[in-house]
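SAMPLE LOG
Freezer: B-3
Tube label: C17
Construct: single chain, 280 aa
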Amino acid sequence: MTSNLTSRWTTLYTRTLPTLAQSSQPTWPVHLDHCFARIILDAVIGNSTSSRPDETPTPWTAKLKSPAVKNMSPQQLEACIELGEAIAEGRIDLVELDQRSLTVRGKMLKGEKRKREDVPGDAAPDMKKSKKPSRSQQGDIRAAMGAPPTTPPKSPSPAAVDPALSSEITSHPTLTPFRRRVLLALCQVPSGSYTTYLALSNHLSSSPRAVGNALRNNPFAPRVPCHRVVAADGGMGGFGGEWGPKGKHNGKKVRLLKGEGVKVDAAGGRVMGSPWSGFK
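STRUCTURE (predicted):
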């Protein structure tokens, strides 16, 4: 169980959140994996968001030996995953979490003078003249978090949408305008890639739940590849009208993804790699 939690946590902060930040969240204060780890670990381990008198907020390193991923309890891993997923789905204010994390580390908020002991890599993003950490420094920070440096792969171009299929979708008598938009957008996801409900919802200025509902009972499957949409944390999500890894059709979704070259973990519960979000 712990190894699965570790894998989920590592994927969440090294791939899922940075990819979302780069592709569809330009207003997020941080974009790098070690920054997401800092914010979440400070909140969960260091209690940076706590206002209780018996809990003194500190950097996570004051309470947990580095690397964090090798020393966290299952409960701590679950809490970090839960918070990370809430950030990915927009249910938590990342700006506020970042400011609280910087505060417990002695950093100043926007408009205030930085302290001399500030460490590159933890600086607030609105300090435009602050020196960026070198690649070697970023690598050292990532190693402390428990993961090696990552290089984001080049995203493939959108798939060409079949004009005949596009015409069928737009003229279908029972589809709402929103469902048509969702299905047409999904046609852009190339074979061998996957996207997420969150990425689709960001492209359509909607919500992951609305996208999930729109994909139910897809009348054009598999030509409109709803099997290429997964949850923000890499979980399989829904398929064939059922949800989750115990869903009746989950195995078929896994087989379809694997058949197209998408890597899935040994348990068949989560995809591996970065989600595609190159919608046009």
